[in-house]
Structure formats: C-alpha cells, structure tokens
User: Fold this.
Amino acid sequence: MSVDLMVSEAPGGPAAARDTASQANRGATAMPRGKSRWGAAALALLALSLSPGCLRFCHPVEAPPPEEAACHELPQACKNHVYVFFVHGLDPLDLANLSGVNDHVRSLGFIKTYYGQPFHVYHFAGELRKVHECDPEARFVLVGFSYGAGLARDLAGAVEKDGIAVDLLIYIDGARLEASPLTSPPNVVRVVNVLGPDRDDNANVPGAENHVVDDVWHFGTPTHPQTLRILEQELGAVAERVPVVQTLPVTGPGAMPVLPPPLPAGWGFLRPDGHARGAERPPPMADASQQSAVSGQRSAKGW
Assistant:
C-alpha cells in the first residue's frame, strides 16, 4: 500500500525566498545599465569642466579690428620694447577669459606678453629682472584681475628693490577677497583701476585713474569693450615713450663709400678680372687712316 504525500510549502518559505532573490538580482543588473549612461555623461562633463580655460567662451572678446585701434599706427619697434604681464585671479576655468584679452593685446602688435595664474607670480618676478638686464629700453606693464590685482601690486613691490620701474599697473575689478586695499606702489609710473558697477567708492585707488564699467558682472569686466579700449589707449601711451632709433646713411664729401659684402669661398669667378675690365682690348682707333695703316701692316706680315 503506497501513500502519495503532497507537501506544500507555506508562504514565505525557501522557494519564495529564491524567487525574490532572483528578481532582485535581475533588477540589480538592469539598473546599472541606465545609470551607467548618466554616469558616463557626468564624468565627461566633469572632465570638461576641469580643463583649463574651458569656460572662456562665456565672455568672448568683442573688440574692433586691430587696424582700428588707437595704437595701430605706432612703429612695431616701439611695441617690441613693451612687456605685458597678465596675472589671473582664482579662476582656473578662465570664466573671465583673461587669456582672450592676452590674445587681443598680441593682435595689436604687443607680442611680448606673459599670461599666468596666481602661482606664476614668482616666475614673473624673475622674468622682469632678466628683461631689465637685457633690454635697457624695456617698458613694463602689469595687469591683474580680481585676486590677481593684489598679486600684480605685490609683483611691482617685489622688483622695486632691484631698481625696476613699472610704467603701467592696471587693476581690473580687484581687491574683492583681500583685507588690504589696492595701492599705488612708489615704483609705478601710472595706475589705472577698472571697477565693476556694483563697487562703491571704497574700491577707488588713491592716486590712480579710476573707471567704472556698466552693465557687466565681475567675470565680464576684463572683456568689456570699455576695458579693452582703456587697455589699448594705455598701452599705446607706454609705447609712445620708447625712443625710435633709426640708422641713416652718411652722405657728403667725406662719406666713406659703401663696399659690397665679400663673396663666399668658391664664388671668385664672379669677381671682375682684367679681361672683364678691358685690359687686353686694343685701344680704339682715332680715324680711318689709322685703321688702313694697321691693315697694311697685317698684310705685310701675312696675318
């Protein structure tokens, strides 16, 4: 006699636990696929945002063509003696596009420019000293934006003990994060202070030419058309003070003749010799009687 026993599991038994676990595993494998796309996009945006200067497009430099600038007519020889140092603030992504302002200055013919972050100030001090020794006609211009304005002031003070004069110091909406106000260092010839519209009179620098730009926020101050126009005018004024040295040819009775440069070795066949100068040519005949006499002599000799 056989008895078939049917054993039914109670709800919540081992089988139900296994089904629940399998469903959880399927859900766990399905969810990361959707999240992986968002994660990859987030990583791409993070990598893009950490790239230096990736936000400079937010404030493009809208300046007139270089040929319309006030300093366009200045000789390039004068501009080559102007050294411009741009000191950025706490803006590693270059939201203010100070690097674009540097490119604009170079397009005006001031090709000897330096652009750097706050940690480049010590290197800039060394470059100032080197240029001062090598170029006696050097003119130095320091431009500091935001936190970099105070660093530009300190840079001018660091080279004062070396007897280096700074021709122009430009503050662009600086001294926002500093307890000490901006000043006019004693070794600086001229100081220009450009401020945003939200600044009060306490931000003015004594002894400087203070300007206030309108309709712009802090990070838009460097590329503002008024700021660019001020920068062009001030750089032109600095370049005008560079003496122009022209070498003119000496003329007059006592002037030495200008000799051609010597020919290189192997090119001596280009030098004029006696034959080329006509040393072996017979003298010209004076008249027809002399020509007939010479012909008679040649006939007698059998020539």
